[in-house]
Automatic annotation (TrEMBL):
InterPro entries: DNA-bd_HTH_TetR-type_CS, Homeodomain-like_sf, HTH-type_TetR-like_transc_reg, HTH_TetR, TetR_C_15. This is TetR/AcrR family transcriptional regulator. PANTHER family: HTH-TYPE TRANSCRIPTIONAL REGULATOR BETI, HTH-TYPE TRANSCRIPTIONAL REGULATOR RUTR. Residues 80-99 bind DNA. Residues 57-117 form the HTH tetR-type domain.
């Protein structure tokens, strides 16, 4: 969202073997990055239309970035369509041309945020060869923590300040995660259920760390403990 190095860039660096070895080999895992939006009717959260021309895409990008900026700086309570339009440098009529409400813009911020994370995970899974299950878990766990360390203030806003979110549902984009787990011998009876449990636990730990222990987003004991927990779950015998 323009506040730091993107998760995709982080993933590409790791996949190519670049960057600090301790960071690449550290530990924390979000095996899936489900699209979770504020708990409102989907129709109200959907854009009115998608931009088709370069100029309109630039307008939408500016509106989304302005929404993220205000969320980080002032919080959800002070977010209004007028403030978003003013910060984006467009009139409010242009905003309503693409989005029906501020909630729809926040949903778009979250959608892009999640899309970046999921793209980063997919890139790692498709460009790196993992010799052991532990290596896979450690790499993806590190990716999850690193992604949330890119812009912790935005993560905090999306985690703490928005309305309740719907329950996580299976998505076809989760398939590479299940396939990656399936390449190794595990003790889980249902890979899809295992993915849901791993994702739920990892997401909860990382999001609470963003809010309560932001210093733990760097490689350290919390990441090590989460990796240990996940490995003991998938290799329980």
């Amino acid at each position: 969202m323009g506040h730091g190095r993107s998760p995709v860039a982080v993933a590409r660096s790791w996949a190519n073997g670049d960057g600090d070895k301790n960071v690449r080999n550290c530990l924390c895992c979000q095996l899936a990055f489900p699209p979770q939006e504020p708990g409102m009717p989907r129709a109200k959260l959907s854009p009115r239309k998608m931009p088709t021309q370069e100029r309109s895409r630039a307008t939408v990008d500016a509106l989304v970035q302005a929404t993220a900026d205000i969320l980080v700086r002032d919080g959800y309570a002070k977010l209004t369509t007028n403030r978003i339009a003013e910060r984006a440098g467009v009139n409010v009529a242009s905003l309503y041309q693409f989005f029906p409400s501020k909630e729809a813009l926040v949903a778009e911020v979250n959608r892009r945020h999640v899309k970046e994370q999921r793209a980063a995970a997919r890139e790692v899974l498709t460009t790196r060869k993992f010799d052991t299950l532990e290596e896979l878990i450690r790499t993806l766990v590190a990716l999850g923590f690193a992604a949330h360390a890119v812009d912790p203030k935005l993560h905090h806003a999306l985690t703490e300040q928005l309305p309740a979110r719907p329950a996580r549902k299976w998505d076809p984009e989760d398939a590479p995660m299940v396939e990656a787990l399936g390449r190794f011998s595990t003790d889980v009876p249902d890979p899809e259920l295992a993915l849901w449990l791993i994702d739920t636990v990892s997401h909860a730990v990382i999001h609470r760390a963003v809010v309560e222990r932001p210093e733990s987003l760097t490689p350290g004991l919390l990441q090590e403990e989460l990796v240990t927990l996940l490995l003991r779950y998938v290799k329980r015998k």
